[in-house]
Amino acid sequence: MGHKERLKQLREDVHVLTLTATPIPRTLQLALTGVREMSVIATPPVDRLAVRTFITPFDPVTLREALLRERFRGGQSFYVVPRIADLDEVAAFLREQVPEVRFMQAHGQMSPTQLEDIMAAFYDKQFDVLLSTTIVESGLDIPNANTLIVHRADMFGLAQLYQLRGRVGRSKTRAYAMFTIPPSGKITQQAEKRLKVLHSLDSLGAGFTLASHDLDLRGAGNLLGEEQSGHIKEVGYELYQSMLEEAVRSLREHGAEEQEEQWSPTINVGLPVLLPETYVPDLQVRLGLYRRLSGLHESADIESFSGELADRFGPMPEEVKHLLTVVQIKNYCRRAGISQVDTGPKGAVISFRNKRFANPQGLVKFMHGYGAAVKLQPDHKLVFRAEWDDGVERLRGTRALVRELADVAGHKEPALPATASGEAMPRLNIGKVKSQAPAAPVKKAHAPVVPAAFKHPPRGFGKRGN
After folding, report:
1. Superfamily for domain range 266-455
2. CATH, domain range 52-203
3. pTM
4. Residue 435 or residue 98, greater confidence
């Protein structure tokens, strides 16, 4: 990193070519978003064989057999530990369980002269096993070493494990890599994911695919800061990705028409709206479902999605049903230009985006139809008075209300949405419209006239289609 920055300081427009088997998350992110250009070399050297990978609990018998097999076929082995403190423990194991092999130790606290002598002796085949820390993960090319054992592989990063595996199999001989975990098999969930990815990608030229998994696991880091990995906690990964792509597109187009701004309305209904962990246990699956759900804009698609949920996870709990209804409400709000909806037992307050409505004449007609039950406040918020006895009725009434406003904004008569099967969905009643009659009885001559719209709600607030 420091060397590349130094090159940039020497000349402002210098071109830098970076070669790597496993790009760090930030470098890969920059390439995927178009900030940097990228080429992939997927052709392996002639007669190169893929490394056979095994993930196993620590077993002295298995490790002894692996080391002796490599020695008997005239090869050498790497034995890598995560910490210097582990060297003595593994050295004692080798002396006791595999006395036939000769080994030497190497770690970063040795002097450069000592390390150079040990590496030269290993290259000259003066001993069988090199017991070391991760200092051997890069820069070594020893074709005769074709067995790798990694102690406590759950303590290494994904890119580290891939680089270590690249120390073997650098000739025409089949190589083997064994990644050991504690005998109890208890490791963290993240470590388990890393090892599963490494085990699944055992073909030649899998570095780019593995780096993509590493990006998902560790995050992309900061675009302009020093952090080369890590998740963007302030805005979230999806929003960060969208913002970055938009910025790159804007810089490349130089004056092209501005992309339509993406926005999402806020819906407050006072009900739980989510995919519960008890319904969808896996976090990654839940996030994927949320991502898909955010991209559904048609009622038929939402209906199909709800059917898929029922098929995969069983009958939907109330929270999931509420979530699907809120997604429908959001879609109607986008059509109507509604930025926020706040509902309660006594009605709803609607805020229009940028304090504008696409069809002012239609809105006046809508308000006239409901009389005193609808009022437009000086701050351009629309207040709708209704009596919703419970949360479900409030949710359904809100959906019917914003659906009507969406049709008014579109200068068209309300159309019945279709289900996944093509049948028309019946409109739901908005609920009991709250009248403005005085609390104390008055003479009949002075009683307020109830508009006909209260008895016959306009444009679909009755049970049409049933």
Report:
1. Transcription-repair-coupling factor, D7 domain (3.90.1150.50)
2. 3.40.50.300
3. 0.49
4. 98
